[in-house]
Give the backbone structure.
Amino acid sequence: MTLVLPKSPSFRLDGKRALVTGASRGIGMGAAVALADAGAHVVLVARSADALAELVVAIQAAGGSAEACELDVTDTQAVNALVNEQPVFDILVNNAGINRPGPMSSMSEQDFDAVMNLNVRAAYFVAQAVAVRMQANPPGASSITRSIINTSSQMGHVGGVDRTVYCASKHAIEGISKAMAIELGPYNIRVNTVCPTFIKTPLTESTLADPERVDWILSKIKLPRLGEITDVMGPVVFLASDASGLITGSSLMVDGGWTAG
Ligand code: NAP
């Protein structure tokens, strides 16, 4: 008898459609490039139209497929309009986010509201809009599961210096993701978070310009370096693809071992 080998699940995303928010730079840009490299058509969302247009051209030049949509994701009406005018998405990378680092004593109501409004409220309603369309349009045979990836953080699992509000927002995303996974599982929609450590992007520029903070960060990351945008690209493709077909309600730590202890 010939041994019948199990078929390796594919990391490819050919024929799938992905929506990436916060795609104009940083981790979102990396996620969009990675998904396009894996074969998905990627719809790029952010407020900076020029940066998005430049990224579309670059992805297309590299052989990928992408289109830009200038949008403020805190505008729920505009989000719903976009999601409903597009063919159903198979993948969402719910990534737009901000931080207002500072000691708890100096956080204003405006800081609190700005972080929560984008990192929690907008992320919730983007996921809701995409999930409702997914539920109403079950995938064909070519697509085993659909995938919602919420960009959380290691700060969704631990506390961090000058990050009370940011930690609150990312812990909230962890809870939302688990509860969404329970509700959407019967529809073959997976919901997970990706949880990076400090990655070199415009968001972390000010923190990483402070040598004391960098010393603190490097004392917590077990691998001897900071994170790069490329470190998040593989994990996003994994969570988007059928290679992670039984993974839902989970958090993928991309933290160089920060939360290991
Ligand atoms: P970034 O470089 O500042 O990029 C943020 C992205 O979000 C930009 O594309 C920005 O585009 C977009 N955005 C901001 N407000 C928006 C709005 N109202 N509507 C639509 N798009 C909006 O930040 P990043 O470091 O890549 O962070 C991306 C995500 O990863 C965030 O959720 C962040 O919390 C998380 N994260 C980052 C790190 C890190 O160390 N960098 C670590 C863990 C988690 P426009 O300005 O053009 O709108």
Observations:
- Strands lie at 17-21, 41-46, 65-70, 91-94, 146-151, 189-196, 251-254.
- The chain has a mean pLDDT of 97.
